């Protein structure tokens, strides 16, 4: 009997395998087939494809064998000229050495390359790598020596130093120093530069420092497998010394947080912070690689490295749901600040403020938390540090400030791309997707989440990919896509359980509960949300328990358990009042309405809608209007109920929230009201204008006032509404009529 078929690699490994072989599909399949079980699971980093005997690689080697020695020499020269440092010196080197490019004709005839004005292009980047790997060491040195000879040391300093270093016969402290001193803006190039410097370093301490720096640069540049291989090499040189290097501790912690067992990351990150201050010189050179925008070349700035490490330590608490870790990180930060002058850069101050804010929230000090988190957002927005800006996005979402969350996430993405810090991109996009979703931009949120998932997989951050999956489950639940919601939730829950990621587990449960609630299964929603409330660190999350309270209250009320709903609301009201976010206060008022009856309930609904007017969470506003309309219908206030239900239906149709749209439509039909879809233009006025007769009474009145030239403020004053409410009605009118301006509306009304 044959052996069992190997377990397919996890999705992120499959994505990175394709990248490792430069998009060569057949080679990617061969590489994944050759992986060990630990490599397939993402526990160990992917190997260099050239170290495995892949058939595609061997086929390329076979293609090179018939070529003449002169032809292979030219191919090697071109390969050395192009990667990892692009020298653009191939033609100069050919002329200086007197080589004849006609020797490349057989390779061109075989389809391996083609000539361009700048030199030659390989048919496949994998072939270029095979050409370089297949050459003997002395042949590679000769090619680099020739390229260094034709480069200008003044104007082409990086490639000149690179080729000099690659041509070296052995260790050279001077060459290592010259190479390390050459400025490099790109993290991937910086990683290769530091790795080469490590090969040139004559002592183990120098090699360890260079490898640590190379690993951090590789991680920041999105090359996770390369970073993890470099980290392993650094630890193998001198295990005891590696344990004391703050950069190695930092990267070990980040790797565990992003793709390993997340709770295990805390100790390494805390050690990195302590070591950074104890050995400032070592920390200083690594901090620039670790994520701050400022260049930490001076030892007095070592506390900034510690701040960065502790911000990630607090992130361990955030993602695992163990908020004690956030408090511990904040206490360590306070202790370090007491012994050293605090960092002055806005990004570092923002990270410290965020640490303090999260810790205050964890111990129930909501008032202090709000002040510090707002400070963190404002300070981070003054910087171009991707990590500080990502943390600011998280803080803004916690405060219910979606506008600042969106702005900070866009700023984080721009900064990360400008600095080549690709590892920061998935998080920035993940949190942006949440802000876009709650503002009703479900299409944009879904697109952003898909992009975030792909980047997380490409950069080897499988735990971030798990978080994004959970967020995609929530988006699918809002849309009513049961299949996608279940698939994303199950994927996230499976990975989260193995890696101790409480946030992803909690988000997945919320998604399933939201789907139950909007699909008319309140009992199931209550059951899931109660299970979420009982889950501890590594399996749940206190913050998610808090923000799901409005949905729990709604579900509990619909099952008749008002006592449980009231108990849950008590803590939420205290938090919402302290945070003072209009959106959270609106949801608290909506919950009070659900627990009341008669005019008292209607008063709370009106209060909620007024608060929604000052908030950008249009999706929740639509749900408030739906519940308000249901309450009005049950009190037989049909005209008001019809207006609210139609407004809710239009909003949900516009957002793509189909379960809620169907619920609003069912309530309208129960009153005998016709329900038109978003593209329904079947109804026409006698004058032939589509859709006018389907406007609500209030919408028709507002449309007439607009046609008469009234402004939003004037309309609001006449109808005793807020300008935001008038604007909300106008958007509904435009959507119903298929227009986009007041001028078009005036023409339709005048017809």
How would you summarize the topology of this molecule?
Elements (H helix, E strand, L loop, with lengths): L10 H10 L4 H9 L3 H4 L14 H10 L4 H14 L7 H8 L7 H5 L3 E4 L2 E4 L2 H10 L2 H14 L6 H10 L6 H9 L5 H14 L3 H17 L3 H14 L1 H6 L1 H14 L5 H14 L1 H11 L11 H19 L2 H17 L6 H17 L3 H15 L5 H13 L3 H18 L5 H14 L3 H17 L3 H18 L2 H18 L2 H17 L3 H13 L7 H6 L1 H10 L3 H18 L2 H14 L2 H16 L4 H17 L3 H18 L2 H13 L26 H11 L4 H8 L3 H15 L4 H9 L1
Antiparallel strand pairs: 1-2
Helix pairs in contact: 1-2, 1-26, 4-8, 5-8, 5-9, 6-9, 9-10, 10-11, 11-12, 12-13, 13-14, 13-18, 14-16, 16-17, 16-18, 16-19, 17-18, 17-19, 17-20, 18-19, 19-20, 19-21, 20-21, 21-22, 21-23, 22-23, 23-24, 23-25, 24-25, 25-26, 25-27, 26-27, 27-28, 27-29, 28-29, 29-30, 30-32, 32-33, 32-34, 33-34, ...
Q: Supply the CATH superfamily name of the domain at 454-670.
A: Tetratricopeptide repeat domain
CATH architecture of the domain at 454-670: Alpha Horseshoe
User: Spans with pLDDT under 50 lasting ≥5 residues?
Assistant: 280-301, 678-690
- The helix/strand class is mainly alpha
Query: What's the total number of strands?
Result: 2
* CATH topology heading of the domain at 454-670: Serine Threonine Protein Phosphatase 5, Tetratricopeptide repeat
Task: Count helical runs.
Answer: 42
Helix amount: over 70%
Largest sheet: 2 strands, antiparallel
């Amino acid at each position: 009997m044959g052996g069992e078929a190997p377990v397919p690699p996890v999705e992120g490994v499959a994505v990175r395998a394709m990248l490792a072989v430069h998009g060569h599909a057949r080679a990617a399949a061969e590489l994944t087939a050759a992986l060990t079980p630990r490599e397939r699971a993402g526990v160990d980093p992917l190997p260099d494809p050239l170290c495995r005997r892949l058939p595609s690689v061997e086929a390329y080697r076979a293609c090179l064998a018939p070529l003449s020695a002169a032809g292979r020499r030219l191919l090697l020269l071109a390969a050395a000229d192009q990667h990892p440092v692009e020298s653009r010196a191939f033609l100069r080197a050919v002329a200086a050495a007197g080589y004849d490019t006609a020797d490349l004709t057989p390779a061109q005839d075989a389809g391996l390359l083609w000539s361009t004005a700048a030199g030659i292009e390989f048919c496949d980047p994998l072939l270029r790598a095979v050409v370089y790997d297949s050459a003997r060491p002395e042949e590679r040195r000769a090619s680099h020596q020739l390229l260094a000879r034709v480069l200008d040391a003044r104007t082409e300093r990086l490639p000149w130093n690179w080729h000099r270093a690659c041509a070296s016969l052995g260790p050279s402290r001077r060459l290592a120093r010259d190479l390390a001193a050459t400025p490099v803006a790109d993290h991937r190039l910086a990683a290769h530069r530091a790795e080469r410097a490590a090969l040139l370093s004559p002592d183990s301490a120098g090699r360890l420092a260079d490898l640590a720096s190379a690993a951090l640069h590789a991680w920041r540049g999105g090359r996770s497998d390369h970073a993890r291989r470099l980290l392993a090499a650094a630890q193998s040189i001198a295990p005891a010394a590696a344990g004391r290097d703050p950069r190695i501790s930092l990267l070990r912690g980040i790797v565990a947080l992003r793709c390993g067992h997340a709770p295990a990351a805390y100790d390494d990150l805390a050690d990195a912070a302590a070591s950074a201050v104890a050995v400032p010189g070592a920390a200083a050179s690594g901090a620039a690689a670790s994520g701050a925008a400022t260049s930490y070349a001076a030892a007095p700035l070592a506390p900034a490295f510690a701040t960065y490490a502790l911000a990630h330590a607090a992130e361990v608490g955030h993602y695992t749901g163990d908020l004690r870790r956030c408090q511990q990180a904040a206490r360590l930060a306070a202790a370090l600040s007491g012994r050293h002058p605090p960092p002055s850069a806005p990004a570092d101050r923002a990270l410290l403020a965020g640490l303090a804010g999260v810790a205050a929230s964890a111990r129930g000090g909501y008032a202090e938390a709000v002040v510090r988190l707002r400070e963190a957002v404002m300070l981070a927005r003054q910087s171009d540090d991707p990590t500080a800006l990502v943390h600011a996005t998280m803080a803004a979402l916690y405060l219910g400030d979606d506008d600042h969350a969106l702005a900070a996430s866009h700023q984080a993405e721009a900064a990360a791309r400008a600095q080549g810090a690709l590892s920061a991109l998935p998080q920035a996009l993940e949190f942006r997707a949440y802000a876009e979703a709650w503002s009703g931009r479900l299409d944009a949120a879904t697109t952003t989440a898909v992009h975030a998932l792909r980047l997380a997989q490409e950069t080897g951050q499988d735990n971030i990919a798990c978080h994004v999956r959970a967020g995609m489950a929530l988006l699918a639940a809002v849309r009513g896509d049961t299949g996608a919601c279940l698939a994303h939730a199950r994927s996230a829950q499976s990975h989260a359980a193995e890696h101790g990621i409480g946030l992803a587990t909690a988000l997945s449960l919320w998604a399933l509960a939201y789907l139950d609630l909007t699909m008319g299964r309140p009992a199931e929603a209550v059951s899931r949300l109660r299970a979420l409330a009982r889950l501890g660190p590594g399996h749940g999350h206190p913050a998610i328990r808090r923000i799901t309270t409005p949905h729990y209250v709604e579900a509990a009320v619909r099952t008749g358990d008002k006592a449980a709903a009231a108990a849950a609301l008590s803590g939420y009201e205290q938090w919402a009042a302290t945070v003072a976010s209009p959106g959270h206060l609106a949801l608290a008022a909506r919950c009070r309405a659900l627990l009341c009856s008669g005019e008292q309930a209607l008063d709370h609904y009106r209060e909620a809608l007024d608060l929604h007017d000052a908030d950008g969470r249009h999706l929740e506003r639509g749900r408030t209007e739906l519940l308000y309309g249901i309450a009005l219908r049950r009190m037989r206030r049909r005209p008001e109920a019809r207006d609210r239900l139609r407004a809710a239906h239009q909003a949900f149709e516009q957002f793509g929230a189909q379960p809620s749209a169907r619920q609003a439509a069912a309530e309208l039909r129960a009153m005998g009201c016709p329900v038109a879809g978003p593209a329904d233009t079947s109804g026409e006025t006698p004058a032939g204008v589509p859709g006018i007769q389907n406007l609500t009474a209030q919408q028709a009145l507002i449309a007439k006032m607009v046609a008469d030239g009234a402004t939003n403020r004037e309309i609001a004053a006449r109808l005793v509404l807020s300008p935001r409410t008038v604007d909300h009605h106008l958007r509904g009118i435009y959507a119903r009529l298929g227009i986009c301006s007041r001028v078009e509306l005036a023409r339709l009304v005048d017809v």
